[in-house]
Design a protein that fits this description.
Blueprint (H helix, E strand, L loop, with lengths): L9 H10 L5 E3 L10 E6 L7 E9 L8 E10 L7 H4 L5 E11 L5 E4 L10 E8 L1
Antiparallel strand pairs: 1-7, 2-3, 2-7, 3-4, 4-5, 5-6
Length: 132
Amino acid sequence: PRGSCSTPNPVSYYHLITTGDGGAFARVPLADLRPGDLIVYTYTVENQYKGHVMLVAAVSSCGDTAVSRNVVVIDVTRLPHASDTRSLAGGGPGLGMGIAKLARSDDGTLQYFRGSGDPAPQAVSVVIGRAL
């Protein structure tokens, strides 16, 4: 996925992190994930040039393995994550915090799960970035 880096949208962030253009972000491996990092995904479905940006608030050590991490994220969305503050407050879209999961597949691809208990990853291209 590519996008115009003059517009702050998920595709632009994805492009900046994966290419290093502009020197604003560094790509981060799953093992080095920490609070303050960004999780960015873009849809892999044809002709869907959009995605999502999440700020990492905390990285869990509970239930994690060498290839997966439960992550507390802060974002704006209509669809809550696991244990989401939006659900606990009666639902609805907007700013909130919840638990998502990142995992590395057998082929090394980073995968995103909307909730920590989701059985299958979302059909997205995902990257972790850190502001420089």
